[in-house]
Structures are given as C-alpha cells and as structure tokens.
Amino acid sequence: MTDYSYFPGCSLASSAMEYDASFRLVSEVFGIGLDELEDWTCCGASPAPHHWGGELGILLPARNLHIAGRSHPAVVAPCAGCYNRLKYAQYELRRNQQLRERVAQVLREPVRYETEVVNLIEMFNREIDPAALAARAQGRLEEISLATYYGCVLTRPAEIVNFDDPNDPVMMEPLLRAAGATITHFPFKSECCGSYMGLAKKEIVFRASRQIIETALESGADAIVTVCPLCHQNLDLRQRQINFAWDTDFELPVLYFSQVIGLALGASPEELGIDSHAVSADKLLVKIKKTANR
Amino acid sequence: MINLSRSVSAGAPIISEIERRSGQQISACYQCGRCTSTCAGSFAFDYSPHRLMRLLQFGMVEEVLRSRTAQLCLDCMTCSLRCPMSIDVAAVIDTAKAIADEMGFKDTERDLRLFRRGFLKNVRRHGRLHEAGLLSWFNIRTRKFTNDLSLVPLLMRKKKIHVVPPRIRNKHEMRRIFREINGAGKPR
User: What SS3 class is residue A50?
Assistant: First the structure.
C-alpha cells in the first residue's frame, strides 16, 4: 500500500469534519498512510479565481501543491473543490513557463508542481480491491439503494481534471457495488447543487438542490452519496430550508462516499460522524445488515 | 430588446479581450440554446446564457458587464460540456465577470460580491476559511442578522464551526501572496 500526502482543505477541518474522520478511518483499515500537508492553506475555492485576473486562483493552490511536492508522489484532496483547484493550478503551471516564474517569485523558491493530484474516489479505487472490500462488507449494504452524486467540479473541465466521464460519471460504483449496495438510475448525478450561493443568493441553491433531492428520491434511493462538502452543505444542512421554501417534506440522508464505505466495513455511525448531519439517516441505518465481525 | 443602432463597433475592443482571455470564439455560437436548457441558475439571470452570447455577438458589452448573469453564473461548466460547438460558455461568462470588476461595474448583485470579497479577506487573515467569522461578517455587513442562524445550533452542538479562528504558522507568506497580487494586500 502507498502513502499519500493529504490536503484536507478548510471544510474537512471544520464543517465537514465527519468527512475527514470517515476518510481517515477507511484509509487506516486498508493500511493507506496519510501525511497531512504541513501548514496547508485555503485552495482559493470559488472566489479566488475571479479576482485580480485570476492570479490568486493559481497562487493559493500552487502553494499547497508546492508543499505536497516535499513528500509523497501523490497528494489526495477529498474535497471536490480543492481537487479541482489543485488540478487547475497544475495544468496551468505545466504549460506556462511565465506563470512558473511568477509563482516562484512569490514563493521565493522554484515551484514544485508535478505531484500527482488524486481525489478520494480515485484513491480508493486504486488502493482498495473490490474483492477485499466485499469480503469485509459481508453484504451489509445489500438492502440499500444509493444515488451517486458527482456534482460539477470533480469531473469538469474534463481536459483539466481528466477524471471519469463528465457526462456520465461512474467511478463510485465498483466499490459501492462490491459492498452490496444497489446504484439507482439518477440522471442528476452531475448537475449543479447551487454552489457557494447559499449565503448570499439562497433561491439558486433552493431550486438547484431541490431538483437533485427530488430526482434522487424518484430514483428510489435511500440516500445520496457525495464527495463534495459544499454539495453536502446544500443538500443536507439546507434540506430543511429547502422544505420550508418549497413546502416539501423531503427527508433524504446525504452521505459522504467514505462514510458509506465505512458503514460497509462495519464502523458505527458515530465513528463516521453520520450523527452530525442535519437529516437523520436512521431509516437507512436500520437496513444495514448486522453481520458478525468487522 | 436589442438596439442595433449602438452595437458592434463600440464593444469591439472589449469583446476581443473577452475572446483573448477566455480563448473562445464568440461568433461560433449559432444560438441553439442548449447552454440555457442545461443551466441550473438561468431562472435567476437577466440574460440566459445563449442570449448573453448573442449580446456579445452584437457588441452589446455594457449590458453584459452590468448583467446579473455575469455575477450569478455558478461556474458549474455544464453549458461548456454540452455546447455542440465546444464553446466554453462558462469561461466567456467568467471572463465577463472579471472584466466587469476591473472596469468598476459594481452595482449588480452587491451581496454576492460582498460575500466573495469577505471570503478572500477571511482567508487572507487566517490562511484557512473561518466559517463562523465569514457568516457573522456577512450578516453584519448586509444587515441580515438572522441569515442562516437556524443552522448554527446544530453546527455548534456537533463542533462543526468554531468560534476561535484556525491558525497557520506561515501567516507572513499568506499576506505576501495577497500583497504581491494587488499591491495593497487588501481584497477590493
């Protein structure tokens, strides 16, 4: 098993701490070493690329990529936003000599930018053998149907991130199926949830996320599975606001991919932080088969 | 309504600038409207994505720079993915947003601009986003004091937001990055 540099990003250190906890738990079970980047900073998220001609949108992720270059050959960024920003910086640095010089001037060192950047799905697919997962899962998820939700920035723009099919992403499926789960037909898997508009322009999130929840329910899913903390915030934390805005009564749990894998391994909902979500997952949790040992 | 009497020539330099920075050819759009039909935000826009492209084709730059569309685009890139001419529509809109900022068109969607600015100020100060700080700063600045307050009890109970901001060791480097970019080191 390989060791990875780990870039948690702001969300995993705070409002998405259950994502961090479940990611670490699953990694440990499969013997994947994670070295958290020393003194990492914000990746720039959505606001940085849109200011000052976009330079900040390169410099912030480039600094983190540069730190990652000190240790392991690959850095894992579970947050879809962070992953996208790191890939974007790397893409631009690779093809633009002037930019490399500019970044080096600000960082006061030649910039290291060739560390491989992987997202959580990519890393799990690489390091976890589906057969090994199936053996440990003992069919725990056999009663559970899941809508796999990928969102926008994990697969787009395809020429930069170069991950999965941007029209019909499927990379979560092998491990979830190995764990016994059924994947529903979910046409909204790569639609936008409303992004960072939650604080300043709620109606966009309310409409976009409502459609995602509604379509997932129609598909027969017991839960939505995501890898993006911002999507999670819009779909889970704001689900009650959405219900209030539209007079609906959705109660659809939204779980991180790593939490679902954790459940398959027999970890408790508390260890995986599922009890920290706004929407209760109790109806899903009772469907998890009680099997002997972990 | 499109006013043909004041079109094309006046906007030409800015349109070339949008094309240069985004790497897209605006005349390639043939108005099929697929971008609009896939857009998650267009219901809140003043010009739907294909209409915005049309405005640019007609040289009507000011409408574009003042548009809510340029501010509200979610940059989800679905339009770019689906465009039959492979135009990166999201990049065109994003470039228009950047140019609108640079040229001082600051009246549309002020709250959203404030949010983006507040986000960067927050990151500049702490190195990482301090979510509780951003929420309270934004609510005070916009005088929407109860905005999202209903979410706070759960987040506090589960220790998912923190009163004390995060700390990084190399704060100086963070400040320097911001300073080098815009001279003053303060988000506009």
Answer: helix
Same domain, A133 and A104: no
From the list A161, A141, A140, the residue with the least C-alpha distance to A150 is A161
Note whether A152 contacts B78, CB cutoff 8 Å. yes
CA distance A155 to A228: 12
Question: Domain boundary residue among A63, A94, A118?
Answer: A118
- A58 CB neighbours in chain B (<8 A) are none
Domain tally, chain A: 2
Q: pLDDT digits over A252-290, tens only?
A: 999 999 999 999 999 999 999 999 999 999 999 999 987
Tell me which residue of B138, B106, B144 sits closest to B119, measured CA to CA: B138
Domain boundary among A118, A151, A167: A118
Has residue A31 been placed in a domain?
yes
Say which of A17, A40, A166 has its CB closest to residue B160: A17
Which residue range(s) make up the domain with A227?
129-285
Contact A51 B188 (CB under 8 A): yes
Answer yes or no: do A107 and B173 touch at CB < 8 A.
yes
Q: How far is A48 from chain B (nearest CA, A)?
A: 7
A144/A278 same-domain check:
yes
Total beta-carbon pairs less than 8 A apart between chain A and chain B: 160
Digit-coded pLDDT (tens) for A128-184: 999 999 999 999 999 999 999 999 999 999 999 999 999 999 999 999 999 999 999
Contact: B155, A204; criterion CB under 8 Å: no
State how far the alpha carbon of A68 is from the alpha carbons of A61, A74, A99, A131, B15, in Å: 11, 8, 19, 31, 39
Residue A292 in any domain: the answer is: no
What are the tokens at A193?
A: 């949830």
Same domain as A106, residue A41: yes
Q: What is the pTM of this model?
A: 0.95
Same domain (yes/no): A56, A174: no
- How high is the ipTM of this complex? 0.93
Q: Which residue has the tokens 């910086």?
A: A89
Give the pLDDT band of residue B171 (cuts 50, 70, 90).
confident
